[in-house]
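Hey, resending since the last one bounced:
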Amino acid sequence: MFERGYSMVGRSYSSFGGSLGHSTGFMYGGIGMLLIGAVVLIAVVVTIHFMKKAKTKQPNNEILESLKMRFINGEITEEEYTRMKTILSN
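The structure tokens again:
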């Protein structure tokens, strides 16, 4: 019975890439998992960054469009339009 339990432990280690004395398969598997995790993390961070950037551009475009309509309707002068557009674009 003891030998049977010992052989089960040996098999569980061999599934990780070899015997107890030679575990290079497990090491390479761990590095691969770390690389995959890093790539996924970078993809999530980049996606969040671009989503935030897109959200901040939309209201600014709406404000500039509103300013443009005020100029077209004659509510503000060309100088006021130019000054406000410069301020809002920065």
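The chain has one domain: 23-89.

Sorry for the duplicate.
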